[in-house]
Amino acid sequence: MTEFTVQVPQSELDDLAERLRRTRLPQPAPGDDGTYGMPNSVLEEALAYWRDDFDWRAVEQRINAWPHFLTELDGQRVHFLHVRSENPDATPLLLVHSYPGSFLDFIELIDLLTDDFHVVVPSAPGFAFSTPVTERGWTPKRVAVLFDQLMRGLGYESYGVHGSDLGAMVGRELGLLSPTGFLGSHVLQAFSFPSGAPGEFDALGPKDYEALEFMQWFQSVGGYNALNASRPQTVAAALSDSPIGQLAWNELFLNFGNGTSLVTLPQLVAEVSLEWFTNTSASVGRYHFEEARAVAAAGGEVPVNHSRMGVAVFHDDFTSIRSFADRDNDNIVHWSEFPDGGHYAALERPEALAGDLRAFFRASATQSTAQPAATSASSASTDVSSISGVNSVMTSSAF
């Protein structure tokens, strides 16, 4: 394990500035309202900010305030932050980032946690400085095994995990792995979908049908899933040569909640800049490719997670459906709902997320699995309405 400092060479910053200066935007679609994808109006605003106002050195200074390290595990270079609490009773906590995303997902969250947690924030292989990728086959399951090795190597005999998106999948895989001393997984999404089984919609309520509608909307705009799962290296050729193209490709930061995202322009540009400087658009996209093949090889079977689990549902995110989540995870002891925030809650609502992490990891492991946790703030029920198309079987992976 060696100490590491994030320091992008000035020549790389100069090259980015020149590319941004010479950006050629696409011809705008009629209406330029986002129907066809990222609108030019948003790109123009992002370009002006990135070119004229964004300060990468300030980002470096902020993130280098925490200790960074490099190590090698399973033949792969792994980058991580390790921030130990001064509290001797602190809980070791692994934070696993999203796709698209990086360890920067947690830049607003770390300081809110260190009174109660020893915080470890790794970059998954292929993300940020956990490069180059030396082998094929990096799935969330393999990353879970790798990160368990990391936590053991840091001397932690027990720990918990939090994640969103890719991080939520890694968290569930750690639950399935159930290593000795595992304290549970806290996730923003329980990626559990209709299976096609008779009667599985009978007990669904109005909020569940709204969640199904959101799934259908996401499928209608999730073309990046298909491209990454089939030709990630091809699309990466364009992303790796065009900064504004890479920013547009990462539109999920801004539109995951169909226009409700609270991710700010500085946060978006920082994330995209990190991906640009590390030239990782190809390797981060391969996770869809590898996971799609792993799911196919398993015949689509979904194993049941018996480990302790908590789910925090932010209003404008993919909404987990409790009955499906309980089917795939039979030890959900904590279920909380928040009135706003979304897929990137660590960036959007860090205070709320930090509070929920404390609630979950302080709660008794014997808490009833039959009722949502006391932190639930769900809205009042209304009559079930008929929604066309809800019986279609969803894909097995949404990240």
Automatic annotation (TrEMBL):
Report the family membership: Belongs to the peptidase S33 family.
Coiled-coil stretches noted in the UniProt entry, renumbered to this chain: none
Could you tell me which species this protein originates from? Gryllotalpicola daejeonensis
Q: Keywords on this record? A: Aromatic hydrocarbons catabolism, Hydrolase
* The keyword Hydrolase belongs to this UniProt entry's keyword annotation: yes
InterPro entries found in the cross-reference section: AB_hydrolase_fold, Epox_hydrolase-like, Epoxide_hydro_N, Epoxide_hydrolase
Q: Which Pfam families match?
A: EHN
Q: Which PANTHER family does the record match to this protein? A: EPOXIDE HYDROLASE (PTHR21661:SF35), EPOXIDE HYDROLASE 1-RELATED (PTHR21661)
**Organism classification, top ranks?**
Bacteria, Bacillati, Actinomycetota, Actinomycetes, Micrococcales
Q: Where is the Epoxide hydrolase N-terminal domain?
A: 2-106
The protein's matches in Gene3D superfamilies, at most eight in alphabetical order, are given as: alpha/beta hydrolase (3.40.50.1820)
Indicate what this protein is called per its UniProt record: Epoxide hydrolase N-terminal domain-containing protein
